[in-house]
Amino acid sequence: MPGGVNSPVRAFKNVNGKPIFFKSAKGPILVDEDENQYIDFIGSWGPMILGHSNPIILEAIKAQLELGTSYGAPTSLENKLASIIKSQVPSMEKLRMVNSGTEATMSCIRLARGFTGKNKIIKFSGCYHGHVDSLLVKAGSGVSTFGLPDSPGVPKELAALTYSCPYNNIEALSDIINEIGDDLAAIIVEPIAGNMGFIPGEPQFLNSLREFCDKHGSLLIFDEVMSGFRVGLGGAQAIYKIQPDLTALGKVIGGGLPVGAFGGKQSVMDQLAPLGPIYQAGTLSGNPLAMSAGIALIETLIQTNPFDELEKASSEIMTYAKNLLNEKGIPFSTSSIGGMFGFFFAEDLPKNFEDVVKSSDKIFKKFFYAALDRGIYFAPSKYEAGFISSTHDRSILDLTKNKIEKAIKEL
Ligand SMILES: *Cc1c(COP(=O)(O)O)cnc(C)c1O
User: Fold this and answer.
1) Contacts of 99 by beta carbon, 8 Å cutoff, 6+ apart
2) Annotated catalytic residue: which of 40, 223, 245, 355?
3) Which band of pLDDT confidence, cut at 50, 70 and 90, is reported for residue 159?
4) Is 362 a catalytic residue?
5) pTM score
6) What percent of the chain shows pLDDT beyond 70?
C-alpha cells in the first residue's frame, strides 16, 4: 500500500514517523500489535464517541449479522436510521444513505448544480470535504499535511469552477461572490471546522453564508460529516440555529461502520433519481449491518446526551496542559465543543487556515511524541482535531493529565 496505509494521515508523515498498527480496542484504550496501550484521542476520527467496542453497538451488529449482511434491496433499518437522523436534524426533510463522507459531499455538489442549473462552488481554505475532484482545492488536513496545494489528477478546468475563500472572512467572501456573478451553485462549509485543527465558524460569518445564498439563488451546504452527532445531537446547525439547504453526514452516524448520508429540502432531494433526473446510486448504500450500528449509536446518544460532559472532559485536560505550558513560556491555545476539541501552539486561537500554518510545527511534533511515548494517542498532525468519548472517565482523565504533565516536563 502506498505509504503503508489506506488513508494518508495514518502514515504519520507530518510528524516524520511510522504508522502504528492496531489490533484491538475497548473503551478509551487502543492496543497495538506489540501490546502497547494508548489512551485514544482520535476515536476513529469521530465515530467512537461512546468508546471502542461499545456493548450496545456490538450487540446490534451481532443481531443483524445472523439475519444477513446485505440484500441490495430496501430494509426497514434504513427508514429507522433516516427517521432518527431527521428527528435530530430537521433541515434534512429527505435524505439518502451512502457509504462515506466523500460520497455524501460529492452527491450534494451534483445535486446543487443539477437543481440550480449553475456551475460554480465556493469552499473555504482549510475545509476538507473528502477527496472529491471539485472539492480538493485548498482542502486542509491530509492535503496540507503533504504540502500539496491541489492534487495532480484534478483537471484545472474542473478546479476552476471551485473558488476558495479564507474561513471566517465575510469581506473576502463578498468579493468572490461579486466576481462569480449569477453562476454560483453552492457554498459548502464545515460550520465547525475539524480539518485545519479545530476551528468553530463565527456566528456572523455563518449567518452571512445563509444570506448570500438566499440572495443569489444558491444552495448552502453544511458539511457535518465530522461535526454531525459529534458537537451535539443536532450538529453545528442546531448550535448556530442556521438551516442549510443540504447537509452531509458520515463518521458518527455509522457507529464505526462505513456510512455517509446526505439530505435537505424535499424540493431539492426530490430531483434525485428515480423521482427526478439527477443520478446518484450505491450497491451497498443503506447496508443493514452499518444501519444497525448507526441506529444503536444514535439512539444511545439521544438517551444519554453526553455532550456537556464530553466538552467538560476535554476542556479539563487541555486547560491543565495550557497552564503547564504557559508556566514554561510556551504559547498554547485550546477550545472544545461537545465531543470535539482542538489545541494549537499559538498565543491566540486561530480563526482560519493561515493562522494554523503560523502555529508552531516544531513544538507540536515534540509534544506529540512526548505524549505518544507515554501512551497518549493524539492526531499526528496539527491540522487535525481531537475527539473524546464517554468512556474517558475520571480515572482516564487523571491518568491523561499525569502523563501530559510528564510529557510537558520533557519539552
Ligand atoms: C472525514 C470528512 C469527510 C470525508 O469523509 P470520508 O468518510 O473520509 O470519505 C468529508 N467532510 C468532512 C468535514 C470530514 O471530516
Assistant:
1) 258, 259, 260, 282, 284, 285, 287, 290
2) 223
3) confident
4) no
5) 0.96
6) 97
